[in-house]
Amino acid sequence: MDYSFNVRQRLEQREHQILSPYAAFSDLSIGRAVIEEPCDIRTIWQLDRDRILHCKAFRRLKHKTQVFLSPEGDHYRTRLTHTLEVAQIARTIAKALLLNEELAEAIALGHDLGHTPFGHAGERALNRICPGGFQHHLQSIRVVEILEKHGKGLNLTEEVRDGIRNHQTEGNPSTLEGKIVRLCDKIAYINHDIDDAIRAQIIKEEEIPREFTDILGHSLGERLDTLTHDIIENSDNRGDITMTPAIESAMRSLRGYMFESVYTNKKAKSQEEQAERLLEQLFLYYEKHLDYLPEEYRLRMEQLSEPPYRVVCDYIAGMTDNYAVSKFKELMIPSAWSVY
Q1: What does the DSSP assignment read for 237-284?
Q2: What's the rounded Cα separation, in Å, for the pair 157 and 15?
Q3: Which residues partner with 257 through β-bridges?
Q4: CATH of residue 237
Q5: Nearest to 64 by CA among 15, 113, 28, 102
Q6: Rounded CA separation 64/251 (Å)
Q7: Is residue 12 part of a domain?
Q8: Fewest C-beta in 10 Å: which of 2, 105, 167, 299?
Q9: What are the pLDDT digits (tens) for 238-264?
Q10: Tens of pLDDT, residues 87-101
Q11: Which domain holds residue 304?
């Protein structure tokens, strides 16, 4: 028997030997929409993770806003660094609970692939102007099922797509690994957004209400440690991913504080209205000038009979911040002209 074929089999067998009975096992996956020959050296969720890492949408995340639009400084989070932080926390928790670390990682790496340029400002703009609305978690599913690889999609497993689809607050993932990512997304963005807001001098650590920090911790590291330990201790061998009510309540209240102090702060969000108008203008322009869309998008309208507004929305949602600004300048702002 081919030695390399045994690698995947051994990995699958090892999962059954060491993982919790509540874990998702890669050899018991529901599978893919299009059946494929299994990889000889990687489990099914290792392969999903690698497909996400190598896709174009993942690379574009490094130039998409997390919270602060065009900040001056190299240390503010982007959508990519947020994604990596979610994956790191999710892997830590999954490993401690003897759940499937590779499935958790794949979901985490793919959960924001459909996010717009300019963060939630971009999402609000597309939600207003696109018929049927826009939600980034559903767009992430479109990315992996339709948009990547020139319309072929990544053909990810059902478990990974389920975790991506249900990572938002009201979601209900079908696997414990998906539930871990759902919580880790909140843990990551609340805490790293605090860190960025302090760096931007929007808030100070000592201004955060003591009723939250006395429970969760008085620094980024302390809060991450508290939340991670709490999930592990409350979820170990219990068939669910839960938190202590007092700590969960403090985390929710801290999130509320961030909405009041940072997410709606005039200084931090001073350019969001301009960003929203920019995307709305791009949307209206491309709807009237479909021939300006890249060829692969025009072909989708012809070959898949997708409505123009949907294709325009896909194109704009996939843009990076800088590319959106560049296209706006190219299409909307007259350039200098000379005969010389």
Answers
A1: TSSS----HHHHHHHHHHHHHHIIIIIT-TTTTTTHHHHHHHHHHHHH
A2: 18
A3: none
A4: 1.10.3210.10
A5: 113
A6: 26
A7: no
A8: 2
A9: 999 999 999 999 999 999 999 999 888
A10: 999 999 999 999 999
A11: 272-331
